[in-house]
Design goal:
The complex is a heterodimer of chains A (155) and B (165). Chain A is an alpha+beta fold. Chain A folds into two domains: 7-37, no CATH class; 41-154, Immunoglobulin-like, CATH 2.60.40. Helix content of chain A is 17%, strand content 38%. Chain A has two helices and ten strands. A five-stranded antiparallel sheet of chain A has the order 1-2-3-4-7, with no helix packed on it. In chain A, strands 5, 6, 8, 9 and 10 form a five-stranded antiparallel sheet that branches. Chain B is mostly helical and 165 residues long. Chain B folds into two domains: 1-106, Rna Polymerase Sigma Factor, Chain: A (Orthogonal Bundle), CATH 1.10.1740; 107-165. In chain B, 68% of the residues lie in helices and 0% in strands. Chain B is built from eight helices and no strands. In chain B, α1 (5-14) runs parallel beside α3 (46-64), α2 packs across α3 and α5 packs across α7. The chains are: A alpha+beta (155), B mainly alpha (165). Chains A and B meet through α1, α2 and β10 of A and α1, α2, α3, α4 and α5 of B.
Chain lengths: 155, 165
């Protein structure tokens, strides 16, 4: 067993714990509170199927300027994106009923603290967004009554 | 939620992200929490969930930025050793400090106020503490000891003793 901490040791730890509270920036505090405005009760989220930043080998990549690829899926729709600098290329792929949709897919890139960007996919499901800055985003895809909302992800 | 901000913040700091990436991780974690509020029915599970999610988002962004560098294979204390061991200990320590803040919040107001005054920077003298709290100078020491004993008895804090070298 470890010796119990002395009063002075415990006091020092209390000091560290209290100090941690004071260093949280107002910016982070405000952003955290604002997150609760995004609560939606009915949203069933797409699943993250792949993220190149989580894939084996990502940890030993040395240059850091390779593009990042992510893919999400939900109820017949798959969204694949590739981010290279501030250019985002994506494809919406429908399966089953969603593949029969005749109208093009619409894609919304949402941010908690800025206006959304939107794009309409071409007949093959491809779309392109420019000026995509780093930050926390999520995607909302709609096509012929099918929709997909991704979890939030930091790009 | 406010009381868990320092926990998330401390874990982000431990991963040495730059300020902007740290802001993004923090924001992502809270947005993810909002997505998952419905699944998190057990409040006791929240600190663990925040710890895991924050750590994963930090590692993910570090990888996306190419900030995790390859290490010399000759070096026995390679990437895995460094990341796993230090991060693991840091995480437990961060969570322990969270428990300590919560235990502090549970103390009777007079005891908590005394501990905070004793920790004040710049330091506050005993006479001033006595005047502000309306207690005799002679009872400051014993009250401090009782307050610390009370913190020590919080079951969740026993781990803290083991984490601290």
């Amino acid at each position: 067993m470890t010796d119990p901490m002395s009063d002075d040791e415990l006091m020092a730890l209390v000091g560290e714990a209290v100090a941690e509270e004071a260093v949280v920036s107002d910016r982070r505090r405000t952003a955290a509170r604002a997150a609760f405005a995004w609560r939606s009760v009915d949203a069933e989220l797409a699943e993250l199927l792949h993220d190149s930043a989580l894939a084996a080998g990502a940890a030993v990549r040395s240059d850091g300027d390779e593009s990042r690829t992510l893919s999400f899926g939900h109820s017949g729709l798959t969204l694949e994106i590739e981010v290279d600098g501030e250019v985002l290329l994506g494809q919406v792929i429908g399966a089953g009923g969603a593949s029969a949709a005749t109208e093009p897919a619409s894609v919304l890139l949402e941010r908690p603290d800025a206006d959304a960007q939107s794009a309409v996919a071409d007949a093959s499901g491809f779309f392109r967004l420019e000026g995509v800055r780093p930050g926390t985003v999520r995607f909302v895809v709609e096509q012929g009554g099918w929709s997909l909302t991704t979890p939030w992800v930091a790009l | 939620m406010d009381r868990f901000l320092p926990l998330v913040d401390a874990i982000i700091r431990g991963h040495r992200l730059n300020e902007a990436d740290g802001d993004d991780v923090s924001q992502t974690v809270w947005l993810r929490l909002v997505e998952h509020l419905g699944d998190l029915r057990e409040p006791a599970a929240l600190p663990g969930w925040l710890r895991t999610t924050t750590r994963n988002e930090c590692l993910r962004l570090l990888a996306a930025r190419g900030r995790i560098r390859p290490v010399d294979p000759q070096d026995a204390t390679g990437l895995d050793a460094v990341v796993d061991d230090s991060a693991g200990t840091d995480l437990l320590a961060a969570e322990s400090r969270q428990l300590l803040r919560e235990a502090l919040a549970e103390l009777p107001e007079a005891r908590r106020a005394l501990l905070l005054l004793l920790l004040a920077d710049p330091p506050v003298g005993y006479e001033e503490i006595s005047r502000r709290l309306g207690i005799p100078i002679g009872s400051i020491g014993p009250t401090r000891a009782r307050a610390l004993d009370q913190l020590r008895r919080v079951p969740a804090l026993r781990r803290l003793v083991e984490v601290t070298p």
